[in-house]
Amino acid sequence: MHPTDPTDHRQTPRVLSIAGTDPTGGAGIQADLKSIAANGGYGMAVVTALVAQNTMGVRSVHIPPVEFLTEQLDSVSDDVEIDAVKIGMLANSTIIEAVADWLRRQRPPVVVLDPVMVATSGDRLLDERAVDAIRNLVRHADLVTPNIPELAVLADEPAVSRWDDVLEQAHRVSATYGVTVLAKGGHLADGSASDALVDAGGRLSGGRDLFEFPGERIETTNTHGTGCSLSSALATLRPQAPGWEHAVDRAKRWLTESITHGAALRVGHGNGPISHFAGLWAGQDGAWS
Ligand SMILES: Nc1ncnc2c1ncn2[C@@H]1O[C@H](COP(=O)(O)OP(=O)(O)O)[C@@H](O)[C@H]1O
Ligand SMILES: Cc1ncc(COP(=O)(O)O)c(N)n1
To answer: Contact at 8 Å (CB) between 212 and 58?
Structure first.
């Protein structure tokens, strides 16, 4: 039963995305809102940066004054009880500080941080000088979801390419920052796309420090926004699930189906988007009454 069923007293999670934009709808805030809806949440969004981008790359970035960011954040939290927040593109250290300040004042029960640094196209989305600030922000999160290059930056170590090394690096990041880590294997070169939930403090169910989520690489170029979509799905599912591993298991199954059906959308000429509602649409027969 879905939580919006009036006979069901569970609350639909109210989920806030704090992120940049993608006018082609595949990544950033636009992807987050679709992902939150597809996973049973009520989506809200605060924009950190306006990004002129498409499936082929980033053209330019416009950053509104930081006071306006704080005004947006307070507008939401002064009015709405937020069950979970997903933080994505933050662009520079001034924005990171403003989000950290707001978290100190208004911390929602679930905070997922996707430490966005570089787009799939290779364009930078975080100022190189802001790396220390993002490392500090990790300490405010419950879950951080780095891809392999981002994991290495957080660890302040060279990037690794073997899965066992990824797990060890994720363990060190978890211990250093006191945070649960979802290490994402989408950048592995061996035909797999496995992820792993790692917590050096044994905060996972049963006091475990590792849950692995094996996955096979789908042959597709529709991977724009996979990280954005996964982190918002996790922020949405965590308030509904008994533990992080349950949320990751469901999110990964949903993401795999959404990646599989991305190409059918025929959006753009580069790295296309995923199909966030493929599972929902599969249940519709298409006949008009
Ligand atoms: N080609 C693919 N086939 C299946 N799963 C994928 C593929 N590419 C990425 N994923 C999955 O998408 C999610 C995002 O992974 P990744 O690409 O590593 O992060 P990011 O989008 O932040 O760079 C992970 O769950 C990863 O396993
Ligand atoms: C505004 C914004 N945020 C994040 C990404 C990264 O996307 P991906 O999930 O493909 O790494 C992006 N391209 N644009």
So the answer is: no
